[in-house]
Each structure stands twice: as structure tokens, then as C-alpha cells.
Write a structure and sequence with these properties.
The protein is an alpha/beta fold. The protein has 14 helices and eleven strands. Helices cover about 40% and strands about 15% of the residues.
């Protein structure tokens, strides 16, 4: 089986098929790594829409031309990640198309309109969190989050990581592993305001890091803090669990499913005072999680990739059956 992933570009790269993992957004990159471990071949068609919206139009034209030339014939199916990329990938009809909706493409109202139409133009839809299905009219999507590389995200000694990263040893550290300029979405302002209420605490921003580096920060810090306005199914939560890092988070997406009853983790309101109160509790505990990693293991790269491959097989099986009947 060979798949082409139409993905968010991690760099401003040319509009062409590539196998270079550095070109792709972390989520489809994790899926590709997982399916390849299970024997499925995969390539990328990265689109730098964040660098220029014109790249979506250019990508659509390029994809149509590639289809006419037969460049896509070597693939069994196309898997588009994110709504706009689904539109680009739908510019060909020679190969079955699967769509993964990732979060913003259903939480932003104007993008949701596109998603609601697009789900009826593909063979299967995957969403990372079940709460997203209601936003696309309860379309019968498969709920499969992106996997966690539990070989990278694993517990290591905290003081060693703090020394390696040059982090203060006498502070309680709350990790924010997102782009701090995405204020409306990730709400770092709430976390910053909460941390200001705790003199012994400090907020650590780790953005633009590799997975290996993020794992080091998770093991160096005392807690992961999340205050996002919306999420699909934040992989950061499962990565933190795999490192046995305590979590303080708002009740967003499927976070409650993962940490709601886990000792050492706390749900809070999306406002500084309650977040500060829950951070104090997590800091006071002063311990790593005892059963966090157990919660993360069912969401390993291989486990989530295996579930996605079952979707591929189902789509291809239905297609063969239809062709046979004709």
C-alpha cells in the first residue's frame, strides 16, 4: 500500500512530492512514521499556505496537472490533512481521497462551511477528537488522534534536563510548548497572568523545537499548562503523560478524557485565578505522575497508525467491491 499525504508545510518549500520529513507539519509526520513502521509507504505533498495563501491555488493547479500526467497513479489513495488541503486534493478524481480534519478547520466558522461540504466529497473522514463530529453535522467520521512517539517521550531525570537546558533549579516551572504569538488560540496570556500570582514559579516557552527537545523540556519542568480556546485533540497532552509530567489544563477537546481522574493533574477554568490555584496544587504535590505513561501507551505512533490503516483498507475494499460489481 502506498499513500500520498497532502499536508501543511513546515517550511516554505516547492509544491512537489517529497519524502523529506522536515517539510511536513508534525501531526502528519507522526502518522507517516507510524504507518511506515507497519509496512505502508508514504510521501508528502506539502503546501505552504501559512507563507502565502496563493500557494493553495497554485497547489490545486499543480495537483490537477499531476493527476493528468499520471504522477499520482503509483498511489493507492490520497490522504489530505486539514480542510484547505482537502480542497487541493479534491482537484483530482482518479484516486480515492481521505480527509483528516485537525481542529481550526472546524472551529473557525468560515472554515467549517468548507468542511461541511468537503466531507461529502471524500471516501472517509478522520477527526482527532469526537467532539469535532458535531461541528460537521455529526458526519460518521472515524475518531483517531495523531499518535505519540513513546520512544522519544519518556521519563528522564529532571535535574539533569534542567542543567542541560540551562533552566533554574530553584523555580517551579510551567511549560508552554506553543507559539506564544497565537494569543487568541493558545491563550498564553492566561498562563502568564496565573504565573505572576505565584512568586516561586516561572513560565517556560518552548516553541520551534524538535520532538526530542520538547521531551527534554517536559522532563525538566514541573507541569504542563494549557489554556487553549479550542483544540482538536492536543497531542501535547499525551506527550506530557508519556513523560509522567503533571498537567493543568482547561476542559478543552478530549483533555478531560485523558486527565480527568488522574492524580496529580487538574482541570481549571479559562481564567488566571483558577489556573493559578490549580498550578499551586500541582506544584505543591511536587511529584511526577505515577500512571501517566500508562494513559499514553494506547496512543503510540503504531497504535494510531494501525487504526488509520484499517480506514485505508476499508476504503480500498469498498472501492474494489464497487469496481467488481460494475
Amino acid at each position: 500500500m502506498r499513500i500520498l499525504y497532502v499536508v501543511i508545510a513546515a517550511q516554505d518549500v516547492p509544491l512537489e512530492i517529497t519524502n523529506d520529513d522536515r517539510t511536513a507539519h508534525v501531526c502528519p509526520r507522526q502518522l507517516k512514521q507510524g504507518v511506515e513502521r507497519l509496512g505502508v509507504e508514504a510521501d508528502y505533498f506539502p503546501i505552504g499556505g501559512t507563507y502565502s495563501k496563493l500557494n493553495y491555488l497554485k497547489g490545486a493547479v499543480k495537483f490537477f496537472i499531476m493527476s493528468l500526467r499520471g504522477d499520482l497513479d503509483k498511489y493507492d489513495l490520497i490522504h489530505a490533512h486539514y480542510g484547505f488541503h482537502g480542497v487541493v486534493a479534491r482537484c483530482q478524481f482518479r484516486k480515492p481521497l481521505i480527509l483528516s480534519l485537525m481542529g481550526s478547520d472546524v472551529y473557525r466558522k468560515w472554515e467549517r462551511l468548507i468542511a461541511r461540504v468537503l466531507v461529502h466529497m471524500v471516501r472517509a473522514v478522520i477527526v482527532p477528537g469526537g467532539q469535532m463530529k458535531a461541528l460537521v453535522d455529526n458526519y460518521p467520521a472515524d475518531v483517531i488522534p495523531y499518535g505519540t512517539d513513546v520512544d522519544i517521550f519518556k521519563p528522564t531525570e529532571q535535574s539533569m534536563m534542567r542543567e542541560k537546558l540551562g533552566l533554574p533549579k530553584d523555580k517551579k516551572l510551567a511549560l508552554f510548548p506553543y507559539n506564544p504569538t497565537r494569543v487568541y488560540h493558545k491563550r498564553p496570556d492566561i498562563i502568564e497572568a496565573a504565573i505572576k500570582q505565584i512568586p516561586e514559579a516561572e513560565m517556560v516557552v518552548a516553541y520551534g523545537k524538535t520532538s526530542e527537545e520538547i521531551a527534554e523540556y517536559m522532563n525538566a519542568c514541573d507541569v504542563l499548562a494549557m489554556a487553549s480556546s479550542y483544540e482538536g485533540s492536543p497531542g501535547t497532552i499525551r506527550e506530557a503523560l508519556a513523560c509522567n509530567l503533571p498537567i493543568v489544563s482547561v476542559d478543552v477537546a478530549d483533555v478531560k478524557v485523558h486527565i480527568g481522574d488522574l492524580e496529580g493533574c487538574y482541570l481549571c477554568e479559562r481564567e488566571p485565578n483558577d489556573m493559578a490555584a490549580k498550578l499551586r496544587l500541582a506544584f505543591a504535590d511536587g511529584k511526577r505522575l505515577e500512571h501517566g505513561r500508562e494513559r499514553a501507551l494506547p496512543y503510540s505512533l503504531e497504535a494510531c497508525a494501525a487504526r488509520t490503516i484499517e480506514v485505508y483498507k476499508r476504503v480500498l475494499g469498498k472501492l474494489k467491491k464497487t469496481q467488481h460489481e460494475q
